[in-house]
Amino acid sequence: MVDLGAMLFRGRGVKLSQQFAVIGLGRFGRGVCETLHGMGYEVLGSDNQERLVNQVLQDHIVDHAIQLDSTDPQALKEAGLFEFETVIVAIGNHVDASIITTLNLKEAGVPNVIAKASSEIHKKLLERVGADRVVFPEYEAGCELARSLTRPAILDWFDLDPEKSIVEVKVPEAFHNRTVAEVELRSRYGLNLIALRFDDKFEINPSPNQKLNKGDIMVVIGANNDIDRFLRSQHIN
Q1: Within 10 A of 65 (CB to CB), how many other CB atoms are there?
Q2: pLDDT single digits (tens) 74-114
Q3: How far apart are CA 226 and CA 105, in angstroms?
Q4: 214 — alpha (psi -120 to 50), left (phi > 0) or beta?
Q5: Which helix (H) or strand (E) holds 157?
């Protein structure tokens, strides 16, 4: 099966920027594969368990899947994984395998390695061996659930860093039938409106004369403190 991966993905001297590799096909890895594949990207899944490899192929949530030991750099090389622009290390509870796999990928020059962590210590070790981004899926899901329960008007919240975010929020009643310029998001709240969603369409960088209507969705970017201040001022909960 390793030879199949090599044949499909290895060796034209270019990085594969429109394709993703996911190592570890548990719940998190399957979710990443299914979402990327559903968005039209080509996905290679891999795991050391043949059962999980066969399952993602049967479920049609990857384009290709390979059984391999990701702690073996030669196996990764032969499977073509070193040529991907982005590799997601979705290995769950096996901390040592997660760290060794991440190290193997970074030492081989993979530009963007995203790794799942199960603890703060795990996170620090992944960062130490070069992970470009470390995620805590359970923690992040918990934060999202808490926000959805306490602030139902917020449809989505994406953290850019610990202090800044992009938020999708329903247009408050006070903004109804007013223009973007009239609500003064930037001067009053320090927020930038980057898009509006209405009638199932997005308008990027809306005009200052664009009218806002209750039920429309605003996509704003700014500091978390300013976002919270805006939500409080509009009694959005």
Answers
A1: 25
A2: 999 999 999 999 999 999 779 999 999 999 999 999 999 99
A3: 39
A4: beta
A5: strand 154-159
d(CA 145, CA 149): 6
Distance CA 158, CA 23 (A): 24
Cα–Cα distance measured from residue 212 to residue 199, given in angstroms and rounded to the nearest whole number: 13
Q: Alpha carbon 162 to chain centroid distance?
A: 15
pTM exceeds 0.90? no
Distance of alpha carbon 32 from alpha carbon 162, whole angstroms? 23
CA distances from 206 to 132, 174, 181, 190, 194 (A): 33, 19, 10, 17, 7
Q: CA-CA distance, 43 to 64, in Å (whole number)?
A: 7
Note whether 11 and 80 are within 8 A (CB).
yes
The owner of tokens 């901390």 is: 95
